[in-house]
């Protein structure tokens, strides 16, 4: 199993910033840690999750809205990027799907004060850092079951073990190597853009199947080398 430092070192070897067998400086590894986390952040925005979608249930108390995220009333383990599905599980065990609506659809609901056993409509405002979920009717008991796509957990230490599903580590190293060409003023190696794009396409295809999202259009052009680390 690779370490975070291995991901950074391998990317720098790919672009020739260091030769094979050379030791990457601690300063460059620390810089690389910041940069690889920025790449993971962009993957979250692109919905390139290595864990697919997650299901969890949250207690209903009769409120019209609930804060949602780590340490909130509905305490998700990580900030959700998108809710893919929702349902109400009543106290008697019966389950009924809820409709996830847009803000435009939400304002068309005339009576949002109703109470009932099941949620008919649910709105997630995608707030940052605290999200809010609004429901109608307002069940006083039972649970709301949510299927969510969550932000990718970022690396903390260079010595952290990297545990990723098949295909993700390869994509991470090659795409991270592309990112490092600019701050290390290195030319993009022949063939690397094609390898990086193919690796990314593999995980995009997998996530499109899991998350039900459309495939992207034409790939972005690779960055050109320049001067100075950011």
Task: Please tell me about this protein's structure.
With 230 residues, the chain is α+β, with helices and mostly antiparallel strands. The chain has two domains: 4-48 and 156-211, no CATH class; 54-150, no CATH class. Helices cover 30% and strands 19% of the residues. It has five helices and seven strands. The protein has a seven-stranded mixed β-sheet with strand order 1-7-3-4-5-6-2, with no helix packed on it. Helix 1 packs across helix 2 (26-46), helix 2 packs across helix 4 and helix 4 (168-181) packs across helix 5 (192-211). The chain starts with a helix and ends in a 19-residue tail after the last helix.
Structural topology:
Elements: H1 4-14, H2 26-46, E1 54-59, E2 65-68, E3 80-89, E4 95-100, H3 103-106, E5 121-124, E6 131-136, E7 143-150, H4 168-181, H5 192-211
Parallel strand pairs: 4-5
Antiparallel strand pairs: 1-7, 2-6, 3-4, 3-7, 5-6
Helix pairs in contact: 1-2, 1-4, 2-4, 4-5
């Amino acid at each position: 199993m690779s370490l975070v430092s291995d991901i950074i070192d391998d990317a720098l070897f790919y672009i020739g910033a260091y030769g094979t067998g050379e030791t990457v400086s601690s300063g460059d590894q620390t810089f690389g840690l910041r940069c690889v986390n920025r790449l993971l952040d962009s993957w979250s925005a692109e919905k390139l999750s290595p864990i697919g979608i997650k299901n969890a249930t949250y207690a209903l108390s009769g409120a019209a809205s609930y804060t949602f995220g780590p340490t909130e009333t509905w305490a998700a383990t990580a900030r959700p990027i998108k809710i893919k599905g929702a349902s109400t599980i009543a106290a008697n065990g019966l389950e009924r799907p809820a409709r996830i609506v847009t803000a435009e659809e939400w304002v068309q609901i005339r009576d949002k004060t109703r109470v009932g056993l099941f949620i008919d409509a649910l709105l997630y405002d995608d707030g940052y850092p605290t999200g809010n979920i609004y429901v109608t009717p307002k069940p006083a008991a039972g649970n709301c079951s949510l299927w969510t796509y969550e932000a990718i957990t970022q690396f903390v230490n260079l010595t952290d073990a990297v545990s990723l599903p098949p295909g993700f580590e390869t994509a991470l190293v090659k795409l991270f190597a592309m990112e490092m060409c600019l701050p290390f003023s290195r030319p993009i190696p022949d063939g690397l853009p094609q390898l990086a794009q193919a690796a990314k396409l593999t995980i995009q295809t997998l996530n499109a199947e899991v998350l039900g999202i459309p495939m992207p259009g034409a790939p972005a052009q690779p960055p050109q080398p320049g001067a100075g680390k950011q």
